[in-house]
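Please produce the structure of this protein holding D-xylitol-5-phosphate.
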Amino acid sequence: MIKLSPSLLAADPLHLGDALHLAMDAGCDELHFDVMDAHFVPNLTFGPHILAGMKKQADFCYDVHLMLTDPLTMLDSYAKAGASILTVHAEANAAEEALKRIRELGIKAGVSIRPGTPAQALRPLLPLADRVLLMTVEPGFGGQQLMRGVLPKARELRCMGFEGEIEADGGINPANMRELADAGVEVLVMGTAFFKADDPYEVARLVHALSPQTGILWPNPKGGHSR
Ligand code: DX5
Ligand code: ZN
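Below is the modeled complex.
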């Protein structure tokens, strides 16, 4: 099943608790929690205390996307606050060390790349990651257009032998979500398309009705092909 991780960035900032409950009631699989430092990206968002408040309300899957120049300094705080998945950017400082620390903390480790960063840049980090987050917009703001040129990176990751989850983030909506599933993306982040939808329940239903890409023949490093 394709998973849906709605991005809190598009929710009403004065009603974040309602947004959490809407995501859970609509059957979403996780909540995407965007953290920005006004340095790695030109915007600023939620600190660990907001996450801790949510975790106190509900034991949900919190998908924390750290858009930070120095993620290492904040990992323990977000882990303590209740993160289920901590994703750092490959372009950030000490990304390798950060991924190791996330695993030490007993949390799922994710690594993300900006649209302009080639998938090959992830190669040395893949053994340390449970999930790859492909940015399909320039990180920093919601409500942008999907950059389709990023989608072949999902197949490239499989060709590099990555067996973890592949997530995409930015500009995803019901009109283009099939393209992402067909490209091999398994977790869809949706901000605007979920929280600003007339019927977010229907959006979640549509995502879960997508069939994952099972038809791609991944090259098998030992020869032949495997699915
Ligand atoms: C952008 C964030 C995204 C954003 C997606 O830097 O990482 O998660 O909230 O928003 P939409 O779905 O509106 O493009
Ligand atoms: Zn994000």
